[in-house]
């Protein structure tokens, strides 16, 4: 069949997401989903919307949701772009801001979707080595040829780069777009959103999938200067005018407006993260300093792959990346306190 495929289809190397097992009683700590349900107001808003106008196309401009997100961040509607999950927003951003033939920069340990897009769109890239403790040396990201993209906090290392350093990277790439993928920023100190009005080359991308517990709804967004947002809208409208359906728009709007629930669940996750980190350290694990809803850990006496496999036998899923230099680390999503108590007990038996 491959000879009927376009060259684009042939060169595609699809991203492989973490497994979604349809099994009961499994403790699922492998894809950084939120362990709590979305806000009850989200469910209410979606239910209401079901009874309304599904017969009609949704708004192609998504004004209503864009306005809610803008208000939350103290920006204007014109600074907001919305897509079907931040993965789609990332894909549009690669198309809109990175040029075939011009090398972009991202860290050598990072979200593994970036090389997938880069190959698909013929964008050469350099994987910039991190320091041995997995922190970023910002100067390595200055003066890129084609632009810069990185997650902050980084995935899967969980490490946060303070805003002053993010700003330095933006300042030293003024002619190119710098994309900060803030999928986990709500578990970290500070977003780069506050720099959006200052730098017209900064694009911040966020998602409702992690901190807002809406991975199943597929809503992501970008925040940036109006000129950047216009480019993303051009890409969207050349592809699909309606990437977000009516139910997703209603649910996402309710999620961003329910600040109290968001704060409560996020704080619970942070408290559990602190507890889990201490427990893992007591079991001999080395745990990187996390600013996300997961921890990245390795054990000096037992191979990460073995820990992953033995947990899997016991119906506990975590994520293992069999890839240098992180092949002795496992990534563990922070679940509920009860899930994590069971997890710690089981992992204790495995390494003990
Ligand atoms: C989860 C994640 C995304 C994708 O989120 P969706 O909005 O669910 O598509 C993007 N970037 C990073 C670094 C992530 O971890």
TrEMBL record:
Transmembrane segments: none
Catalytic activity: L-histidinol phosphate + 2-oxoglutarate = 3-(imidazol-4-yl)-2-oxopropyl phosphate + L-glutamate
Entries under PROSITE patterns matching the protein: AA_TRANSFER_CLASS_2
Residue positions, PTM N6-(pyridoxal phosphate)lysine: 210
Species annotation: Pseudogracilibacillus auburnensis
Aminotransferase class I/classII large domain: residues covered: 25-346
Pathway listed: Amino-acid biosynthesis; L-histidine biosynthesis; L-histidine from 5-phospho-alpha-D-ribose 1-diphosphate: step 7/9
Gene3D superfamilies the record matches: Aspartate Aminotransferase, domain 1 (3.90.1150.10), Type I PLP-dependent aspartate aminotransferase-like (Major domain) (3.40.640.10)
Lineage: Bacteria, Bacillati, Bacillota, Bacilli, Bacillales
UniProt keyword list: Amino-acid biosynthesis, Aminotransferase, Histidine biosynthesis, Pyridoxal phosphate, Transferase
Listed EC numbers: 2.6.1.9
Oligomeric and partner information: Homodimer.
Protein family (similarity comment): Belongs to the class-II pyridoxal-phosphate-dependent aminotransferase family. Histidinol-phosphate aminotransferase subfamily.
Protein name as annotated: Histidinol-phosphate aminotransferase
Cofactor: pyridoxal 5'-phosphate
GO molecular function: histidinol-phosphate transaminase activity; pyridoxal phosphate binding
Biological process terms in GO annotation: L-histidine biosynthetic process
